[in-house]
Amino acid sequence: MRALDLQYMLGLVPVILSYVPLTLAMAGIAMVLALIIASLLAVERVVRIPVLDGLVAIFISFFRGTPLLVQLFLFYYGLPQIVSFLTQINGVTAAIMGLTLHFSAYMAESIRAAIIGVDRSQWEASQAVGMTQSQMMRRIILPQAARIAAPTLVNYFIDMIKGTSLAFTLGVTEMMGATQKEAAGSFLYFEAFLVVAILYWIIVESLSFGQRWLEVHLNKAHAR
Amino acid sequence: MIRIKGLTKRFGDNTVLNNIDLEIERGERICVIGPSGTGKSTLLRCINFLDRPDSGTIEFGDFKVEAAKATRRQILALRRCTAFVFQNYSLFTNRTARQNITEALVTVHRQSSDEANRRADAILRETGLLDKAESYPAALSGGQQQRVGIGRAMALDADLMLFDEPTSALDPEWVGEVLDLMRRVAESRQTMLIVTHEMQFAREIAHRVIFMDGGRIVEQGPPGAIFGAPQDPRIRDFLRRVS
Questions:
Q1: Cα B154 to Cα A46: distance, rounded to the nearest angstrom
Q2: Are strands B192-195 and B208-213 parallel, antiparallel or unpaired?
Q3: Where would you tag: which of A7, A180, B198, B239 has the fewest CB atoms within 10 A of its CB?
């Protein structure tokens, strides 16, 4: 066993750090899009619009039932062969698309469960004051469902940040891609991947501050 | 004038409301009494379609809804003719006391938030809860929550206010303040249909008392007659048990 090359590891940190913004941007954009799509899918699963309901069920089943890596390859390598205007699709876009659709399927299920978990009295009170279904969902039910779903949604966001590392298989130089290149030059694989692992870890851990803030914010109405 | 004809509701084989006819004058206060499980709450919930009646018609003035073929738009319009006070308060838990009152004014009735806030504060003052305007329901006592619930209903200026056992879930210490507020609502000549087990209150406030049993209206009349000289033995039986 040889000693770790700490000098090399320290030198690598700023190199990999410079790719953190790209990683966070991909995860952030995919998260926002996934939240929007997941909310729409979840509401549909609750109110069950004929025909659409079947399509939504198939969508969720497919994107939950197949590996993220396979979906990414399908979008990046496969789709451009079928759909001509996608020939220009770059790795970052494909990765964001893949992450968005994949995680929207998971998040839809947890939001659906949270919607169903909102007390019946909230639905009845909204109806009794004359709200339309969409007013009720937007103003009363979804905000309360958000509180119930928040912990699992944060979990998915963490998964998504780590999932961006798969973008390197589409030729994107993000944290993982940059590390791979550096390691291939220095042959110090252990050091390089250890550094990137620790950096991912730190990013995810610092998110827990955000999570705590979010939960306090969402629980504001329930403090006694 | 509100006119209900042939209102019927079944849950499976169980007919909970059996062909109910009821006419309500503007400004009239009606208390509905009777044993549990006789359809009193279902009657209220069918009037605003929280439970969908199987048949019958409901008319608010010129506006008429046929239960069996009611459209989504008609149901919305019907709900906007009524205001509902729930047994378990059912305040919006993610809204403050003031926001519970303004919510429907802004989203449903398209008032400006200034206008809605002024109305809410006037109502909070009347209900004695102005200092609780920023409190969320979880921080209010049962009595305070129900007063906000009544305030929310008052703000709607509905043709008909429906009260579904508004004091039944309350600790005894809070019942008085809620009944006081309902007396105040009555003074404003609001049309009220109240399901209640508070017989003394019914006797004092109602123009008409309706006794229901088995999904039907068994007897109705002024409180003096119903409480003083009921014709049907079931009422005498019931009154003996609750007194």
A1: 31
A2: unpaired
A3: A7
The answer to whether the CB atoms of B107 and A223 lie below 8 A apart is no
pLDDT tens for B122-151 read 999 999 999 999 999 999 999 999 999 999
B2-242: which CATH architecture? 3-Layer(aba) Sandwich (3.40)
Interface test with chain B among A129, A134, A139, A142, by most B beta carbons within 10 Å: A129
Query: Which helix (H) or strand (E) is A135 found in, with range?
Result: helix A133-136
Domains of chain A: 6-222 (1.10.3720.10)
CB contact under 8 A, A221 and B107: no
pLDDT exceeds cutoff 80 at A223: no
Beta carbon pairs, A and B, within 8 Å:
75
The domain locations on chain B are 2-242
Q: How far apart are CA A127 and CA A135, in angstroms?
A: 10
Q: What is the pLDDT of residue A78?
A: 86
Q: B97-122 pLDDT, tens per residue?
A: 999 999 999 999 999 999 999 999 99
Q: Which of 107-126 (A) contact B at CB < 8 A?
A: 119, 121-122, 124-126
Residues of A in contact with B94 (CB under 8 A): 140, 143-144, 147, 221
Residues A87-123 have pLDDT tens digits of 778 899 999 999 999 999 999 999 999 999 999 999 9
